[in-house]
Design brief:
Oligomer: homodimer
Strand order of the largest sheet of chain A: 1-2
Distance between the termini of chain A: 45 Å
CATH superfamily of chain A: Winged helix-like DNA-binding domain superfamily/Winged helix DNA-binding domain
Strand content of chain A: 5-15%
CATH class of chain A: Mainly Alpha
Radius of gyration of chain A: 19 Å
Number of helices of chain A: 6
Chain lengths: 162, 162
DNA sequence: CGCAATTAGTTGCAAGTGAAACTAATGTCA
DNA sequence: TGACATTAGTTTCACTTGCAACTAATTGCG
């Protein structure tokens, strides 16, 4: 009864190779969600991530958003610019440090957030429906470990700066 | 002792949101592996996927490669063109169906494959090191289910054609 | 203080991407 | 057979991306 698990052997089956599998499943999720965000709200995934962080934490700087959502600072910059142009967020200069500015959801932005959250949660619920809670728990635990190790294996430079 | 698991609630924490997490971990893996492929062999991830499939299955058409590796046909086309230009693969017309051609690794291509496979396996081994086999087994099982469902949630159009 | 180093954020640029249109070949079906 | 539909693969185009360089502000340190 072999484990079918990744191990050190001399054969490689791409369809069992974790980095490949994680990218495939991630891209499926992005495609499905991206379509929802775009069709119903006209925004992309980077914009959604910005809104999600602002909805969860309130006022943040671009730097905070990048760190929290693991996005490159240029991606954050562009998403923020776009969201501001559409009136979903506002920027206000930080008088204590005029390099940065505080970003917050406007009322329309908060409305979008309030509309997307249940959709996102429903999507996740449907996606994980029927899986044993214990299995899901293990899955998430392993996922956390792989993410943390991946952050280091990827080197000092992740998608966001530093 | 709450489960910390995704469920239908009215709060969303992006850092616990599965689509987000899967994309983050996938991008870490891609970045780490991509750096290896590029630095040591001068190829990118799409090229690596093509080589991997040819190394595993032998002679294939571009269509096969796209299906097996879940890549859009244009991405396959470009990777194949590039690999041919570098002498890692050859194309030979299929006389039974002259729309397609068979693609196979050349000797240098097979050498690259033979060099990358142990690196990839070692990477995976190091990445999953110390995790309980039973946990990894559960992880992979859930990952398979999520992938299969994701394929459908993403709609008929995945990254590859149709 | 004053000057070098650091940091927040933006922009130019070159590369990579997928959708759609396209070419050429094959399949289908009356 | 002949016309229409389908398929393999390529190319064009618009868009996204990350890196590097940049600006402006702040910090650190002699």
């Amino acid at each position: 009864m072999s484990t079918n698990l990744p191990s050190t052997q001399d054969l490689l089956h791409l369809e069992l190779f974790l980095p490949y599998r994680l990218n495939v499943v991630g891209s499926f999720a992005s495609r499905a969600l991206g379509r929802i965000y775009d069709e119903r709200f006209g925004i992309g995934i980077p914009e959604w991530r910005v809104i999600a962080q602002l909805g969860e934490f309130g006022r943040l700087t671009s730097r905070d958003i990048g760190e929290l959502s693991q996005m490159h600072k240029t991606k954050v910059s562009r998403a923020v610019t776009e969201l501001e142009k559409r009136g979903f967020i506002t920027r206000s200069e930080n008088r204590q440090d005029r390099r940065e500015s505080f970003i917050a959801l406007t009322a329309p932005g908060a409305r979008i957030y309030a509309e997307i959250v249940p959709l996102a949660l429903a999507f996740q619920a449907r996606w994980t429906e029927g899986l044993a809670p214990e299995e899901l728990r293990v899955f998430e635990r392993v996922l956390s470990i792989l993410t943390e190790r991946g952050r280091h294996l990827a080197g000092t430079y992740h998608e966001n700066e530093r």
